[in-house]
Write the structure tokens for this entry.
Amino acid sequence: MNARGLCGSILVLCGLALTGCSHSGRPPVEAEVLRPDQVTDFSRLFAQNCAGCHGADGTHGAALALANPEYQAISDEGVLSDAIGNGVQGTLMPAFAQSSGGTLTDDQLLALVDGMRSHWYKADVLKGLDVPPYNTDKKGDVAHGEQVFAAHCASCHTTGVQQKNAKLSSITDGSYLALIGDQSLRAIIIAGRPDIGHPDWRGPTGKTPMSDQDVTDVVAWIASHRQKTPGQPYPSQP
């Protein structure tokens, strides 16, 4: 190959190299892979940290539906931030904040809360309705709670081993109650689970809506069935 041909080949190779790289020799910024603690995209964070329990789109998960506008209306940013960051004691909800032993930064926690609110909060969904508050300072009456349960819940939920005519499983099962806290029970009773057909505090058509005290009492009655050793006794072994 003569000198002119050699120089031409070198120029072509240099041009190809520069096409794939920046002047610094690094790939374009858009091709860089972010470190886990740099991810702030809501969809990605939710899929990685929340979808396993709350469902891929915030519904139809084992845990309460975060994509329920009524739940978003009765709670607020502080409730969501505290639950995500610090977890919920006595339940399977872990703490995700780095300050509490988790893996998410403050910016990532904020991205999750902001994403949930922007996607699922609707300001007027409960406007003009007498809604029991998310938190209450009332004391529960277990005896009255049993009556409220019979009137509002027993048509779907059993109180012992699931019966053939029951639409849903036992709400007082020890193993179930070991996995859910009183506040989550209250939130589900008030906001419902529309993704699985569970009504809110107003109940089915024709029912008188539950009051704050009614909700408090039925939660107290359900919680009274918690067991120190859920799942016991085991069947006897031969």
User: Anything to note?
Assistant: The CA atoms of residues 86 and 100 lie 6 Å apart.
